Amino acid sequence: MGFKAATLSVEGDAYPGATVTLKGAGWVNKASTAGSKIAIKLAKDANANPQSEFFAPNPFTTIQASENGTFSQAITLPKEGVVAGSVIGIRALSGSLADDDVNRSVVTAVTVVATPTNPSDPTDPTDPTDPSNPSQPTNPSGTGSNAGTSGSKAKAPTKKALKKAVKKALKGKAKVGKKVTVKLSGKKFAKNAKVTVRWVVGKKAVKGKKGTNKTYKVRKSNVGKALRVRVTVKVPGVKKVTTTVLVEKRIR
């Protein structure tokens, strides 16, 4: 029996510590009834073969393809050993991590570019050019040359700002067998801020790790119910802020 050739591609600029997206298609088991479980290896050359030197951990990560054999997974590249002009080989393998899977080995490569210098973000509390930053002389509560005597404290986001950020961070579709993810980091709000998640199906919060993981897999038992996500941001020394966002009004 023949199988459709699996594909592997990379999207995004590859620089030390960058987040890129791996995409693939054709990754299904022998019966074409389920997606493959895929091991991802990152090598310090374009070949990514057994003779290559690989980045740790090895495998670097694993990916579960969807039922139709596709996947789109963000990974963060290593910082150490990654320099501009070098090449990172990325090899995807299936067959050994799941029963009745197909043995596949697909490789692609990316050339590392220099770390970009991003323009200042006026809404970033860690940005030295932010007028609300305590190091700026225009801030009367800061510690700059024209600053007042009181110190500057970290601020939690407003509920409105948090709700907007959560809506923007939601990825995926709330359908049976599919996954929905909240790709939101505390660093978006403050240096030491922490983000916690609680999924709510109908009127009940999902218990255990399934309920607090940033990714939720929709189940058959969820059909006909609403799916919400409750997100809390806690900044040290500041009152926590919580908001609830409707993900799907009625799961089908």
Give short descriptive properties of this protein:
252 residues, mainly beta, S-adenosyl-L-methionine-dependent methyltransferases, Immunoglobulin-like, four-stranded antiparallel beta sheet, 2 helices
CATH class of the largest domain: Mainly Beta
CATH topology of the largest domain: S-adenosyl-L-methionine-dependent methyltransferases
Secondary structure category: mainly beta
The helix count comes to: 2
Q: Average pLDDT across residues? A: 83
Catalogue the unreliable spans: 118-152
Number of domains: 2
Q: What does the overall shape look like?
A: flat
Count the E strands.
Answer: 14
Report the β-strand fraction as a percent range: 25-35%
Q: Give me the CATH architecture of the largest domain, please.
A: Single Sheet
Q: Biggest β-sheet, characterized? A: 4 strands, antiparallel
Give the strand order, joined by hyphens, for the main sheet: 4-3-6-7
**Rg result:** 22 Å
The secondary-structure element order is EEEEEEEHEEEEHEEE
- CA-to-CA gap between the ends? 34 Å
Helix content percent band: under 10%
Would you give an account of this structure?
- With 252 residues, the protein is mainly β.
- It has two domains: 7-112, Single Sheet (S-adenosyl-L-methionine-dependent methyltransferases); 159-248, Sandwich (Immunoglobulin-like).
- 6% of the residues lie in helices and 32% in strands.
- It has two helices and 14 strands; from the N terminus they run βββββββαββββαβββ.
- It has helices at 159-169, 208-212, and strands at residues 7-11, 19-25, 37-43, 61-64, 71-76, 87-94, 104-111, 170-172, 179-182, 194-201, 204-205, 215-217, 227-234, 241-248.
- It has a four-stranded antiparallel beta sheet with strand order 4-3-6-7, with no helix packed on it.
- The longest helix is centred in the middle third of the chain and has 11 residues, at 159-169.
- It is flat and about 55 Å long.
- Residues 118-152 have low confidence and may be disordered.
- Residues 113-164 are annotated as: Disordered.
- Residues 113-123, 129-155 have a biased composition (Low complexity).
